[in-house]
Amino acid sequence: MMMQIPNLDMDALRSFVAGFELGSFARASDRLGRSTSAVSAQLKKLEEQAGVALVRKAGRGLALTDAGETLLSYARRLLDLNDEALTALRGVELEGWVRLGLQEDFGEAILPHVLGRFARAHPKVRIESRIARNSELVDKTLSGHLDLALAWDGGERAGHAERLAEVPLCWLAAQDGVASWRAGGTEPLPLAALEAPCLLRTLAASHLDRQGMAWRLAFVSPSLSGLWAAAAAGLGIVLRTQIGRPSGVHVLDPATHGLPQLPTLGLMLHRPEREPSPAVRHLEAILRQAVGEAVVQGGVSVPVPARALTR
């Protein structure tokens, strides 16, 4: 007689993933509209179905076990397929256009995934995507030329704006930093940046000036790929987030290298109107999920470390 394999509870999986991505089961309960005790019960049920412990105590909170990390990867895929199937069934008749704008940081990190999922669910809807800088994304949303725009928080606001995340800024360079510059030396810090206007270029200059550090523009690029190449080659230090960071570029510890400490940067979702069309709503749901996964997988989720969970 074949052993009966239990089916994992989809609601419990959703609470499990939300708790990890939000850093707290209390936040997950708020997001999902359930009580904290109900979410805890779901976690216990999931452990019973899996037959192994998924979390362990870590200080005042919880951390994932090895089995928990394994399940998390499968849970995301299961939820993706579940949501994609339901979206396709409920929205099969959607037609028309959706115009999406993104910061270049997210072009390679999430755009292929977002477009692929949406196209499979809504083959009759055509998507026009645009990679651009902050000011252009907000302007085109305000003018009605974009239905959705994902941009860094530079203080600009479109018709309806929502903060999706707070992402830490960091100094980035090649493995050994920049060979021609050392903290405490007489040479100005070589800075690599995008062409102006660029929000992160402005932030880098203001933080260096505030600390009284001499700096020079060693490399200017019209594209993010060119900027990453310059950083990997050791031509300059870059101020950016870790989203989309290539393997040849590393995070510099500010204290070790004598660099200014950096704040977080808000990630905003802009829409020209509060009540979007059904097609825009469906694309927005996929985009939100992809952004959440990108910031967590990049190790930059806020306000807690990605592997730490609290009840």
From TrEMBL:
HTH lysR-type domain boundaries: 8-65
MF-aspect GO terms: DNA binding; DNA-binding transcription factor activity
Pfam family name, one: HTH_1
Keywords: DNA-binding, Transcription, Transcription regulation
InterPro entries: LTTR, LysR_HTH_N, LysR_subst-bd, WH-like_DNA-bd_sf, WH_DNA-bd_sf
Keyword Heme found: no
Family from the record: Belongs to the LysR transcriptional regulatory family.
PANTHER family assigned: HTH-TYPE TRANSCRIPTIONAL REGULATOR LRHA-RELATED, TRANSCRIPTIONAL REGULATOR
Protein name: Regulatory protein
Originating species: Azorhizobium caulinodans (strain ATCC 43989 / DSM 5975 / JCM 20966 / LMG 6465 / NBRC 14845 / NCIMB 13405 / ORS 571)
